[in-house]
Amino acid sequence: MDLFKKLSYGALHQSGFVLATVVLIIIGIASPTTTVQASLRRVKEDVVKTRIRAQAAAAGCPEMDNPGGRLAWNPSPDSGPFSTNGSVVLPIEGVRAPIVRVGIDTSGNMVVPTNARDIAWLDQGPLPGHTNNIVLAGHIDYNGIIGSFNGLQRLRPGDTVAVQMDGKVWAFEIKWSCLFDRNTTMASQIMGYTNTPSITLISCGGVWDPSAGTHDKRVAVRGELIKVV
Prior knowledge:
By secondary structure, the protein is α+β, with helices and mostly antiparallel strands. The protein has 3 helices and 10 strands, in the order H-H-E-E-E-E-E-E-E-E-H-E-E.
C-alpha cells in the first residue's frame, strides 16, 4: 500500500497610577498604521482560509480547514520501520495495535508497515511533532490477513482514538472522515500542520486497482486532542 507521493510545497507585571494612565493613553491612541496593518493581516488570513476551504471542498472534504505544510519530507535509505513503546487504540473497533516509527524511503514515499498489525507513525519529532499533527498509517489487509485499520472508514465524528507512548496517553475525538484519490494533491494538508493538536489516521479505501497493485482511494480520518494524561 503506497500512501501519498512526495510532496511539493513550498509560525508587566508592575503597578501604580502613573503606569496605568500611560497604558490607557497608549491604548487610546493606537496609531492608524498599526490598525491598518492589523486589518490587512486579517484580510490576508481570511483569503488564505477561503482558498484552503475551497481546495478541500473540491477534493471532497470541506471539513478539512487546516493550513497544512511544515512537513519534514527527507528521503533516506534508513527510514524504518523501527519499533517503539507506543500503541494506538480504537475503542469503537476493539483495536489496539503497536506503533512503529517510519520516515520517507528513497522513492519519496512514507514507509508503511510490513505486516497487518503494525501502524506506521510518520516521525516529525516528539508528539505531536512540529506539524502539530500525528500521522498514523496502517493496512486494511495484508497478504490476506485483516489489518488493524480495516475498520477505519467506520469511524464517525464523536468517536475516540488514543495514542499511548512514553508513559503518556493522548486522547483525541474524531472530527471528520474523508475519501481521497490515491494520488491526491491535498497530501500536504492532510498530513501537514494543524492549528489544533491533531491526529490523522490513513489507510486504503475505494476499490482494488490491479494495474497499480493497490486501492484507488485513501481514507483519512482526523481527530483533535481532548486530553493528555
